[in-house]
Specification:
The chain has about 230 residues and is an alpha+beta fold. The protein has helices at about 10-20, 85, 90, 160-165, 180-185, 190-195, and strands at about 5, 20-25, 30-35, 40-45, 50-55, 75, 95-100, 100-105, 120-125, 135-145, 145-155, 170, 175, 205.
Length: about 230
């Protein structure tokens, strides 16, 4: 799964990278994005604009605005099976902007034990060139009693070789050459074919401090490499 990520670049940088005309005022640089926070996203109905969208899908048919935690992610293999996603993969695709994501790995000494999350080692995973990229995502609009929420899920897939050594899933990162196509009106079969693990040769990972475990902690030192004793 993908439970945390970062997008700490300024608005002008992301505007230039994704060649859009407008970035919403609510889009803020974040070093530790957690579920229920607003993320920078490009929706297929407005590809020239970056909007602030709540992370954690609230389906349009939901009775409440709350979402289950597992709706921050959507498994690529299940998109046509789940009621929440089979319409969205056809008509409501989006890109969630990021520069890195975080995953946690059990220490070698704990692999044969039931290890609590606090003992797991966090990794920062990013592109080797440290450039911005886009997660493949799905979005929807929920409205009730005059309240309107635009929300999203990040699509995950089986990991590439790099991430497999850390976790058994990874978010789908779209190759830059396919970003516009993902947002275009293509057949669902073609969209599904894009949902592959990103080339591990173009990525890197390193261990970081457990400060990232605190959802409210949002500071540049999260990105600093941190060595753990064996």
């Amino acid at each position: 799964m993908c439970g945390r990520f970062s997008q700490s670049k300024d608005k002008q940088t992301i505007k230039k990278r994704f060649n859009v005309k407008k970035v919403a005022d609510e889009v803020m640089p974040l070093f530790n994005v957690a579920p229920d926070q607003d993320v920078a996203a490009i929706l297929n109905d407005s590809p020239d604009e970056i909007k602030a969208v709540r992370w954690g899908l609230v389906p349009s048919w939901s009775k409440e605005e709350k979402h289950p935690y597992n709706m921050i992610n959507a498994k690529s293999e299940e998109l046509l099976e789940k009621v929440s996603y089979k319409r969205l993969i056809r008509y409501k695709r989006c890109m969630v902007i990021a520069e890195s994501f975080y995953e946690w790995k059990k220490p070698e000494a704990d692999k044969d034990k039931k290890s609590k999350s606090k003992s797991k080692i966090p990794y920062r995973i990013l592109l080797k060139n440290e450039d911005l990229f886009a997660f493949a995502g799905l979005w929807d609009i929920w409205e009730k009693d005059g309240k309107k929420i635009i929300s999203c899920s990040i699509i995950t897939a089986k990991p590439n070789i790099l991430v497999a050594g850390i976790h058994d899933r990874m978010p789908v990162i779209l190759p830059q050459a396919l970003e516009k196509e993902w947002l275009s009106d293509i057949p669902v079969e073609k969209a599904l074919a894009m949902l592959k693990p990103y080339d591990s040769e173009l990525m890197k990972a390193y261990t970081i401090s457990r400060k990232v475990n605190i959802p409210t902690y949002n500071a540049p030192d999260i990105h600093e490499e941190f060595a753990y004793q064996a």
